[in-house]
């Protein structure tokens, strides 16, 4: 069964990662750019996690109370019994849980990610083949134009201006397409004058 790829805001939300090894490290590295508040519980931490900024480390074994108040939980231990306990507890409380490399214990999967600024694409095979998802991720990453993060940021910044100045929806679509095309060509480095000129020209059309 395939999984629907929800996108949700996780900035300043609480996440629990159980496990302090390299697998946990890889998950945390993917999460940090999204501004989530990460608590890591483990009896020991790898060197990278020991010194990583932006996370809360709790050096002890997992306690069931650790999942309370968490938006989602990741189990990345090498102890199958602990992973099973985490999965059961989270399911009982309807907390999304990902147990690394054990699809049957997961209620969500970690996608292979392409992130450039506010542009984010995620790829998943439902836990069937992370290698295949990574293959597609790499292809998409190579296809994303230079400066695409600036293009997206710029389009977002002018969205309200265009909606206000161009009431007609068909004209707005043409404006956005023209701004987008020029922004791609110039790798997102459009001036305010260039943007206003595109809006002005379309606004003058009958």
Description:
The protein has helices at 22-31, 47-51, 80-92, 130-143, 148-165, 169-185, 192-204, and strands at residues 14-18, 37-42, 55-59, 72-75, 97-99, 112-116, 119-123. The chain is of the alpha/beta class and 206 residues long. The longest helix has 18 residues, at 148-165. It is built from seven helices and seven strands. The strands form two sheets. It has a five-stranded parallel sheet with strand order 3-2-1-4-5, with helices on both faces. It has three domains: 14-109, Rossmann fold (3-Layer(aba) Sandwich), CATH 3.40.50.720; 111-144; 148-204. Helix 3 (80-92) links the parallel strand 4 (72-75) and strand 5 (97-99). The model has no long low-confidence stretch (mean pLDDT 91).
Per CATH, the superfamily of the largest domain is NAD(P)-binding Rossmann-like Domain
- Give the second-level CATH assignment, the architecture of the largest domain: 3-Layer(aba) Sandwich
What is the count of β-strands? 7
Outline the low-pLDDT stretches.
Answer: none
Global structural class: alpha/beta
User: How much strand content do the residues show?
Assistant: 15-25%
Give the fraction of residues assigned to helices. Answer: 40-55%
Distance between the termini: 51 Å
Please work out how many helical segments DSSP would assign.
7
